[in-house]
Amino acid sequence: MFTRPLVIAWKELLQLRRDRMTLAMMAVLPIVQLLLFGYAINTDVRHIPTVVYDQDRSAASRDLARSLSATGFYDMLGDVRSYLEIEEALRSGRARAALVVPADYASNLAAGRSSRLQLIVDGSDPQTVGSAINTASGLVMARSSELMLRKLAGSSAGESAAFQPIELEPSTWYNPELRTAVFVVPGLIGVILTMTMVMLTAMAIARERERGTLEQLIVSPVRRIELVLGKILPYTIIGYVQMSLILLAGRVVFDVPLVGSLQLLYVLAFVFIAANLALGLFFSTLAKTQQQAMQMSFFFLLPNILLSGFMFPFESMPRPAQWLAQGLPLTHFLRIVRGITLKGAGFADISQELVWLAAIFAALVLLTSLRFNKKLV
Amino acid sequence: MSENPPIIETHALSRRFGSILAVQGVSLSVSRGEIFGVLGPNGAGKSTTIRMLCGILDPSGGSGKVVGFDIATQAERIKERIGYMTQRFSLYEDLSVVENLTFYAGIYGVPRSRRRARVDEVLEKSGLTQRRKQISGTLSGGWKQRVALASATIHEPPLLFLDEPTAGVDPVSRREFWEQIHRLASEGTTVLLTTHYMDEAERCHRLAFIFRGQLLDVGTPEEIVQRRALRALELETDRPREAADVLRRQPEVDEVSHYGHLLRLTTKGDLDPEAFARGVLARHELSVASASASRVTVEDAFVSMVREGEAASAAVAA
Fold it and tell me: I need a labelling partner for A149 at 20 to 30 A (CA). Which of A73, A159, A230, B252 fits?
C-alpha cells in the first residue's frame, strides 16, 4: 500500500533535482516576492506632493501651511498664483493636492469669524484622496480648537488648562505602527503557496500526459489513490520549505512578529497545502498540456490575490464577491496565518476557518476522483 | 501447450467511440509462448484492441479473458501480470536508465529486497550495463527502445504487449530487438505486438489481420500467404511505367510495384504469371528483358487484403 506512493514520490524528487530551473524558481520566487511585496506595497499614504495657493499671504496663512507640512503627509512644493496653475500642477502629476487659503483668512481669524479653506485633491487615486482629506480635516480641526482655546485663554488668563474639548484617542492593537509589511508578509505565505502548489501539481500530471508516461502508469497496477499520494507527498515538503523561508526572511528583513504558536501554524498549513494540491490535481485532469495547466493556474491566482483579503479588505467587498471568496482556500488561510502570527490566535479562534478549508479540500478530492479515471477515454 | 487454456481469448470484442465503431466483433485466441503479430493499416483498430486487452479501455460489447481474468471487471488483476510498451517508448527522459528501471520495478511490486538484483539482471540481459547511469533522454532511438523493453519486462510478466515497438528504429537495432523478443518467447513469455514492418510480421509465430475494426484473417504467415493464393513475378522491361500501367488494367493482376529497375507483379488465381505477363505485354508491343518467379510475401498478402477491403467498402458506399 505504501510502497508505490513512496516510489512515485522518490521519482518526483529525482526529476525535480534534475530540473534546476524549477528548483531555483521555487527557492528564489518566495524571496523575490517577499521583497517586492514587502517594500513596494505600501498602503499608508505619505508625502503627498502639494502646492499652496496662498491668497492671503499673511503670517497666519504661512503658519498653517508649515504645520500641514510638519505632519509628514504633505510635501510642500511651493506657491502657485492661480487656479490655472493648480490645475496644471495636478494634471501633470507634479502635485496630488493643492491648498487654497482665502484672502480674508488672517482678518477673519482676528475678527473671530470662521474661515473656509479649500483642499483640492487629485481623485484619480482614491486611496490618496481619503488619506489626504482625513489628515487635513483632522489638522484643521485641531487648529481651530487651539485657536479657540487661545482666545478663551486671552479673555481669562491662566485658566487654559482647565478647558478641554472632547477628544478621541485612537488606539491600534496588534500592529501599532500600522506597518504594511507586517500585514503583507504572512499573507504572502498563502499567496506563494497557492501559486507554487497549484501550478506544480497541475503540471506534474500534465507533463506525464504530454510525454506519454501517464499511459504507462495507467496500464500499471498503480491505484488512483497511490498515484495521487505519490504526487502530493514531495510537493507538500516543498510547500513547507517555502513557508519556512518566507517566515524566516519576513522576520529577518521586515521584523514581522510571530505572536502565536508556530506548531499550530505548521499543523494547520497542512490542510491548506493539501487543498491547493488537490486543486492542482483537479486542474491537471482538465488540462491536456503543461501549457494549459500553467495558464489555468495563473487564471486561478488572480482572483485569489484580489478577493481573498490579501490586498483589499474582505469586509469592503460586495456580497457576491465575498461569497465567491469563501470558496477560495486562501481566504481562510489568510485569516489563520494572520491570526496566529500577528494576534496570537489559538485553535478555538480559527477553528471555523479550518472547517472551511477541510470542506473545500473534501470537495476537491471528490471532484478530482470523479474526473480522474484510470481508464483511457 | 494445447493442454493450457489460451492466455488471451476474446469473443466478439467491440469498441465504439461516439458513432464510430473502432473495433467490431474481434474474436481471438493466443496461446502461451506465442509471438502474435497484429497487422493492419493506420486507424484499423490495432491500438484500441490492445488497450482493451490491457484493461485500460472498456469494451462496448463482447468479452475477453487475459491471463485468466476478465478484461471488463478484473482489469487491475490483469495489469499486475502484463508488460506494456507503447510506440513512443514512454520513459522518463530526465531519469537515468537504472532509475527508470528501479521506478518500474517499484511500481510493479518487485519486492524491495529483490529490486536491485532484478534491475541488474535485466540490464545485463539487455546489454545496458555500460549505460546504466546515462540519462534516458540522451539515448538514441534503439537504446531507448531497449530500456523501454527492459522496463516492460522488469516484473517478468507472462504476457507482453508491444504497440508498434520498432517505429522509427534503425534496422540493426530492430534486428537486435527481435532477438530479444525471441529470447523472451523461448523463456515462456507470450508476446502480442503490432507492426507496420512486413519483415517483422514474418518473424511472428501467428498473425492477425485487422482492417476497419474487423478481423479479416488469422494464421501463421505461411497460412495467410497461402490463403490469398497469389503468385509473384519479377520483370525487367525497357519501359517499366507503360508496362505497369498495362498490367494494372488486367483483372488477373493483384498488384504491380516498382523495385529499382524491376517490376514486381502479383497475380490472382491459378495461372502462370510469367506466361501471362509476357502475353499481355507482347499484345501492347512491350518487350520483356527478363522474368523470374518470386516468393509471395506477407506484404503481398497484406496489400491484397487492404485493396480488396477498400474495393468492397467502396462498392457498399456506391
Answer: A73
- Picking from A154-163, A310-319, B130-139, B233-242, which range would have the lowest pLDDT averaged per residue? A154-163
Q: Which architecture, in CATH terms, is A48-173? A: 3-Layer(aba) Sandwich (3.40)
Cα Rg for chain B, rounded, in angstroms?
23
Phi, psi angles (nearest 5°) of residue A352: -65, -40
Contact residues on chain A for B84, CB-CB shorter than 8 A? 216, 219
Q: What is the pLDDT of residues B142-172, one digit of tens each?
A: 899 999 999 999 999 999 999 999 888 889 9
pLDDT of B150 reads 94
Test B103 with A11 for CB contact under 8 angstroms. yes
Q: Which of B115, B122, B109 is nearest to B149 (CA)?
A: B122
Confidence (pLDDT) at B260: 87
Cβ within 8 Å, pair A221-B79: yes
More reliable by pLDDT, A56 or A182: A56
Interface test with B, best of A6, A7, A224 (most B CBs within 10 A): A7
Distance of CA A117 to the CA centre of its chain: 36
Is 70 exceeded by the pLDDT of residue A154? no
Any CB–CB contact under 8 A between A211 and chain B?
yes
CA distance A40 to A47: 15
Continuous H helices in B160-231: 171-186, 198-201, 221-228
Counted across chains A and B, CB pairs separated by less than 8 A come out at 70
Contacts of B104 in chain A (CB under 8 A): 220
Domain(s) of CATH 3.40.1710.10: residues in chain A: 48-173
- B94/A218 CB distance under 8 A: no
Q: Above 70 in pLDDT, residue A189?
A: yes
